[in-house]
Design brief:
With 105 residues, the protein is an alpha+beta fold. The protein has a single domain, classed as 2-Layer Sandwich (Alpha-Beta Plaits), CATH 3.30.70.100. The protein has 3 helices and 4 strands. It has a 4-stranded antiparallel beta sheet with strand order 2-3-1-4, with helices on one face. The radius of gyration is 14 Å and the shape is globular. 13% of the residues are buried. The model has no long low-confidence stretch (mean pLDDT 94).
């Protein structure tokens, strides 16, 4: 725990393999729909990258709050805003890899 009861910062490196031919569409929806709501729920987005050759979408997401990343993530997914988004990741993603990483430099 850090000062004043805050949980430590958690950062995830997420690599999504996107259904062929939908990478640009997925990236635009992610930017326009997912990012604003994630920010509203206290997450930070450290960047996002497209790997056209592998049809992969790679991004960094961090959270530092009074609760855990998992609790904040559950609130995000259960929110009315997430439901209203009408975006089902499984319409686009064929594989996901999520790794917790620590800042080194």
């Amino acid at each position: 725990m850090t000062e004043r009861g805050m949980m430590p910062r958690t950062t995830q490196l997420r690599t999504y393999t996107v259904r062929e031919g939908t990478l640009s569409e997925w990236a635009a929806k992610w930017r326009d729909l997912v990012v604003p709501l994630r920010l509203e729920f206290g997450f930070e987005i450290g960047g996002a990258w497209l790997d056209e050759e592998r049809s992969q979408f790679v991004w960094l997401i961090s959270y530092e709050g009074e609760d855990s990343f998992e609790e904040a993530n559950s609130r995000y997914w259960a929110s009315a805003g997430r439901e209203a988004m009408g975006l089902n990741p499984f319409d686009y993603l064929v594989d996901r890899e999520v790794r917790v990483v620590e800042s080194f430099y």
